[in-house]
């Protein structure tokens, strides 16, 4: 059994996806979160990291050159021998030097079916507002590799969630978030298992049924 891949989670908000990743860890698991980095002092995610006994750091981004942010970030990641980065509600662009150093080793989760309803400014309730305004009957959650632009990298895993007539933003957001909490740890296992074996991970099974999860397409 190979040791868990040391991972960092970047989060700006409350960190429920971080919590799902932490809760999924086991001593012989595929990954271990060694540090949580936020751009916001006081972010809920930092409290969750501390409660779990992990390193919790704030790295300021606003008003600083990206190169300086990258240098500070890479020094911290290198000091902890981090080999994978999971973005979980991180609202800043990752500096290109960090993307280059961790090419195809950075994942993000997005609360819609990319490439639809993604890109700059598409975060939080704006995503669900756009989905509801479009009249589509299907939304979902997507895990993808991170590139220099928002929401552009190769998709790794995607699970669908039904949009019901009469749905409002809170209802749809909650239904998708509960799917995210299952999808992200499963994809994290999938990629880390492959990386530990020196393989390219390839895509993660499309539907929950294929991956053995009990949830169905409606996210219930
Ligand atoms: C999630 O909906 C995720 O898809 C998006 O940001 C949100 C973070 O939520 N990128 P939380 O902080 O993990 O609860």
What does this structure look like?
This protein starts with a strand and ends in a 24-residue tail after the last helix. The relative contact order is 0.15. Mean pLDDT is 93; it is low at 210-220. α4 links the parallel β4 and β5. It contains six helices and seven strands, in the order βαβαβαβαβαββα. Helices cover 34% and strands 20% of the residues. The chain has helices at residues 16-24, 44-51, 66-79, 96-101, 125-134, 169-196, and strands spanning 5-10, 31-38, 55-58, 84-87, 106-110, 138-145, 155-162. A seven-stranded mixed beta sheet has the order 3-2-1-4-5-6-7, with helices on one face. It is of the alpha/beta class and 220 residues long. α1 crosses α6 (169-196). Residues 11, 13-17, 88-89, 109-111, 177, 180 line the site of 5-O-phosphono-beta-D-ribofuranosylamine.
């Amino acid at each position: 059994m190979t040791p868990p891949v040391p991972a960092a989670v970047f989060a700006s908000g409350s960190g429920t996806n971080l919590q799902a990743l932490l809760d999924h860890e086991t001593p012989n698991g595929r990954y271990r979160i060694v540090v949580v980095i936020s751009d916001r002092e006081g972010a809920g995610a930092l409290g969750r990291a501390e409660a779990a006994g992990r390193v919790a750091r704030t790295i300021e981004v606003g008003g600083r050159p990206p190169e300086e942010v990258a240098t500070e970030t890479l020094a911290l990641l290198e000091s902890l021998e981090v080999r994978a980065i999971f973005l979980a509600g991180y609202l800043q662009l990752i500096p290109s030097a960090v993307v280059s150093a961790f090419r195809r080793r950075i994942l993000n989760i997005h609360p819609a079916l990319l490439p639809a309803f993604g890109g700059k400014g598409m975060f939080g309730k704006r995503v669900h507002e756009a989905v509801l305004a479009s009249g589509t009957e299907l939304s979902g959650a997507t895990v993808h590799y991170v590139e220099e632009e928002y929401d552009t990298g190769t998709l790794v895993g995607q699970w669908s969630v039904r949009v019901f007539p009469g749905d409002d933003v809170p209802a749809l957001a909650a239904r998708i978030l509960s799917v995210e909490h299952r999808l992200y740890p499963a994809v994290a296992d999938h990629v880390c298992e492959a990386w530990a074996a020196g393989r390219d991970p390839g895509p993660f099974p499309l539907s929950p049924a294929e991956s053995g999860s009990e949830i169905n397409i409606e996210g219930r």
